[in-house]
Amino acid sequence: MQQRGRTSLFEDLLNLATRLPWWMDLMMAVFAYIGFHLWHVHFLHEINTLNEPVPVVANPAAAIPNAVNTGLARGGIMVGNIATEVFQYAVPGLFVMGSISSAIREQKMKRRRWDGMP
User: Fold this and answer.
1) How many domains does the chain have?
2) pLDDT of residue 52
3) What residues contact residue 67 under an 8 Å CB cut-off, 6+ apart?
4) In a domain, 21, yes or no
């Protein structure tokens, strides 16, 4: 028996989306877009609060820990901002593709039943 190879997260989500009814896929697409968009707006708000300048001190060596912590905090927020910006369009697109596939499969099944084929 042939074993199935490892699949990516994209393939797994698309497989899940094709097994759901088409109307549920469209609802999931809308909710995913709204959720990722709100999360993206939250990260934009966090970026705006971090855009304050780093205070200048007389001894530059004393400012290093503060600068490193500020840079790490800004880096994590920037990565989250980019990820949510991509996911707010990619995940709903995935569910829309799944709904199209599910609707086509449903139409084929109805046509088979109508024609009396097994």
Assistant:
1) 1
2) 67
3) 54
4) yes
